[in-house]
Amino acid sequence: MTTNPASGTEHGLDPRAALAAMGQSAAATRAAIGPNPAIIYFVWAVAYLIGYGLLHGANFGWLPLPYGTALLIGGIILLLAIAYTAIISIRSGSQIRGDSTFAGLAYGMSWMAGFLIVALFSMALAKLFSTLLPHADALQIGWLINAVAILVVSLMYMLGAALFGDRTMFILGACFTVLNAAALLAGPSGFISIFAIGGPILLIIAGTATLISRRRVLPVVK
Amino acid sequence: MGELDPVIHADARLRVMSSLNTLGSTETIAFPKLRTILGMTAGNLSTHLRKLEDAGYIQQNKVIQGRSPATFVGITTQGAAAFEAYKRQLLELL
């Protein structure tokens, strides 16, 4: 519905009403020009929970699923989460021109480039293992590939924090680095449990923190 | 304390300035998207944009997007400074 807010309010606008109007339009603008990061964090929390949960179930036998099938389903969930993130990011940034358009595009392309290398690295590592260590467990290969993938994830979050001035994103990236170190120290048998529990928890905390900060009414708008 | 800037101190123009200031001085927004955000009619928004443009607070650029003309609106450096001064004055009043 469209309105004409100026009607009859050209003069004598109350300072409190003016401050409220500023806050409302600033909030509406922020919501319209960028995706809500909280929703993205929650979507990824679900993706981590299902993805690593399936791997955990297949590996520890509480799901009647071969490890390869769990890996395949996890990969599909990962692609769906990527597609969702890309679509809402592109849609919200439409009809905006300027520096942020390039920054957003460059950031999105960096994620793609990072995961292209992770995919190629995974194939190369699997090939190397099949030649040098033919009896190696799929879990051992997965453990190493996962470490590289999470390295990309944590660095991209920290890069995003620097690019968009988002402290929550930086803390999330730093926490994923800590989780990655813990998973590497825990070894092939422990990394899935660490990410099945730690990943969703971190993402839910980040999403909740973002949601709270977006809803907080600030006395002075930007 | 000086008088509040009359160009900004009107509900519709205040909303426009706040929205464009949130966007930042390096960004511009398409007219239809700004209209949707502010919930204003096209005619009303055009009128207020013209007043702000005459004051040098915003700029409107007409571009060709695909095959259709589009208008992009953005705050100027002068507009951002005026809005900051307005906010300071407003807070002093409270």
What is the name of the CATH architecture of chain B?
Orthogonal Bundle
Mean pLDDT of chain A: 89
Separation, N- and C-terminal Cα atoms of chain A: 26 Å
Largest sheet descriptor of chain B:
3 strands, antiparallel
Distance between the termini of chain B: 13 Å
Shape of chain A: elongated
Q: Any idea what the shape of chain B is?
A: elongated
Number of helices of chain A: 7
CATH superfamily of chain B: Winged helix-like DNA-binding domain superfamily/Winged helix DNA-binding domain
| Count of spatially separate domains of chain B | 1
Number of helices of chain B: 4
Could you name the key traits of this structure?
heterodimer; A: 222 residues; 7 helices; 79% helix; elongated; disordered C terminus; B: alpha+beta; Arc Repressor Mutant, subunit A; three-stranded antiparallel β-sheet; 54% helix; 21% strand; transmembrane helix (chain A); Transporter (chain A); transmembrane (chain A); membrane (chain A); ArsR family transcriptional regulator (chain B)
Task: Describe the secondary structure blueprint for this structure.
The complex is a heterodimer of chains A (222) and B (94).
Chain A: H1 15-33, H2 37-60, H3 67-92, E1 96-98, H4 99-132, H5 138-164, H6 167-186, H7 191-215
Helix pairs in contact in A: 2-3, 2-7, 4-5, 5-6, 6-7
Chain B: H1 11-23, E1 27-30, H2 31-38, H3 42-54, E2 58-65, E3 68-75, H4 77-93
Antiparallel strand pairs in B: 1-3, 2-3
Task: Please give a structural write-up.
With 222 residues, chain A is mainly α. Chain A has helices spanning 15-33, 37-60, 67-92, 99-132, 138-164, 167-186, 191-215; one strand at 96-98. Chain A has one domain. Chain A contains seven helices and one strand. The longest helix of chain A is centred in the middle third of the chain and has 34 residues, at 99-132. Chain A is elongated, with a radius of gyration of 22 Å. Chain B is α+β, with helices and mostly antiparallel strands. Chain B has a single domain (11-89), classed as Arc Repressor Mutant, subunit A, CATH 1.10.10.10. Chain B has a three-stranded antiparallel beta sheet with strand order 1-3-2. The longest helix of chain B is centred in the last third of the chain and has 17 residues, at 77-93. The A-B interface holds A 1-6, 9-11, 13, 15-19, 21-26, 28-30, 32-33, 94-100, 219-222 and B 9-16, 18-19, 21-24, 26-30, 32-33, 35-41, 44, 48, 72, 74, 87, 90-91, 93-94. Chain A: This is Transporter.
